Amino acid sequence: MCEERYRLVNEYVAAAKVLSRAALKRLALHGEEFVRARAESDAARTECDRARAALLRHEIDHEGCAGPLSRREEAFVAHG
Predict the structure, then answer these.
(1) How far is CA 53 from CA 11, 27, 30, 59, 72, in A?
(2) DSSP sequence for 18-67
(3) Is 58 helix (H, G, I), strand (E, B) or coil?
(4) Which of 11, 21, 25, 27 has a CA that sits 20 to 30 A from residue 2's CA?
(5) CA nearest 69: which of 79, 42, 24, 61?
(6) Element at 11 (helix H, strand E)
(7) pLDDT per residue as tens, the chain (80 positions)
(8) How far is 19 from 13, CA to CA, in rounded Å?
């Protein structure tokens, strides 16, 4: 994995974690708090989508870089 893909994978993982936390936060909220939390969640989803698109674009542009992650890389991504 090249350095750029490594960076993009980590950026995507971080964005996905933010999105997950934002979605969970909404579960217990009502009214105005829910509306604010939904806006945060929507922004997190937009960022996560942007990060994923950047990763996919890199994989297309940088042939050979889209291969599977090594076990070491999988462990890093899984544990951040």
Answers:
(1) 11, 27, 32, 10, 24
(2) HHHHHHHHHTT--HHHHHHHHHHHHHHHHHHHHHHHHHHHHHHHSTT--S
(3) helix
(4) 21
(5) 79
(6) helix 3-26
(7) 788 998 999 999 999 999 999 999 888 889 999 999 999 999 999 999 999 999 989 988 887 776 665 555 555 555 54
(8) 10
